[in-house]
């Protein structure tokens, strides 16, 4: 079996997507290993969850500004021989230099069907816009926020009477299914970027293709 790709997860808060990745990577057959968790906030609940799983986890000190924060991230990535980075609720924009150095080796999950609703408050904005399908996207990271080649998306229905919280919960359940499938594709080198569009090498898409239609139980 090919060596598992050493992967860091960058978080800022509760880390439920990080936990989904850790759970998936607990299987030896999974092509990525979660080898490091970094948080932009010292109190992030996700740090405890990572440590409970025996994964090195640290808060990054951004108090000296973006450049010194990113230098600390780079040092930790080098120390732990990291090859891939998953952003999972990481609330800092990475600098263009950092993104260039790690081009096509950083992925992010965003709670909307991009390019719709980049930025924050996606569930409120989806309800205000009256869309009937909402969801989440995993994409390779580029310097602009929530921008970059789309690897995969999961769509969830917007239901009559939905609140932002109810919709967020339905999307989050889809995120937890989608992100581990996408990391597996990326770690196994089954996806590549051609002219800023993602192309999958395995047409059979055995471990989950680029789309996932998620239905809540009972729908
Ligand atoms: C998720 O909705 C993710 O899509 C967004 O931030 C949220 C993070 O939640 N980027 P968690 O920390 O993974 O629970």
Brief write-up:
This protein has helices at 16-25, 45-52, 66-79, 96-101, 122-129, 164-187, and strands at residues 5-11, 32-39, 57-59, 84-87, 106-110, 133-140, 150-157, 191-194, 197-200, 211-213.
Describe the structure.
The protein is α/β, with parallel strands linked by helices and 219 residues long. It has two domains: 1-92, Formyl transferase, N-terminal domain (Rossmann fold, 3-Layer(aba) Sandwich), CATH 3.40.50.170; 109-219, Rossmann fold, CATH 3.40.50.170. It has helices spanning 16-25, 45-52, 66-79, 96-101, 122-129, 164-187; strands spanning 5-11, 32-39, 57-59, 84-87, 106-110, 133-140, 150-157, 191-194, 197-200, 211-213. The protein has an eight-stranded mixed β-sheet with strand order 3-2-1-4-5-6-7-10, sandwiched between helices. A two-stranded antiparallel sheet has the order 8-9. The N and C termini lie far apart (40 Å). The model is unreliable at 215-219 (pLDDT under 50). 5-O-phosphono-beta-D-ribofuranosylamine binds next to α1, β5 and α6.
């Amino acid at each position: 079996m090919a060596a598992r790709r050493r992967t860091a997860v960058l978080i800022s808060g509760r880390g439920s997507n990080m936990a989904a990745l850790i759970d998936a990577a607990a299987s030896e057959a999974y092509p990525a290993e979660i080898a490091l968790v970094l948080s932009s906030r010292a109190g992030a609940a996700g740090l405890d969850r990572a440590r409970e799983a025996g994964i090195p986890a640290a808060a990054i000190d951004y108090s000296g500004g973006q450049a010194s924060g990113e230098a600390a991230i780079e040092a930790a990535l080098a120390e732990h021989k990291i090859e891939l980075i998953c952003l999972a609720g990481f609330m800092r924009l990475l600098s263009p230099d950092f993104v260039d150095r790690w081009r096509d080796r950083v992925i992010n999950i965003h709670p909307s069907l991009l390019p719709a609703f980049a930025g924050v408050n996606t569930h409120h904005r989806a309800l205000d816009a009256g869309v009937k399908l909402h969801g989440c996207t995993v994409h390779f990271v580029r310097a602009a926020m929530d921008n970059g080649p789309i690897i995969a998306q999961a769509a969830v229905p917007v239901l009559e009477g939905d609140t932002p919280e109810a919709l967020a919960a339905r999307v989050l359940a889809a995120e937890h299914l989608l992100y581990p499938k996408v990391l597996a594709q990326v770690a196994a080198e089954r996806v590549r970027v051609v002219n800023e569009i993602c192309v999958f090498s395995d047409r059979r898409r055995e471990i989950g293709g680029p789309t996932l239609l998620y239905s809540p139980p009972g729908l």
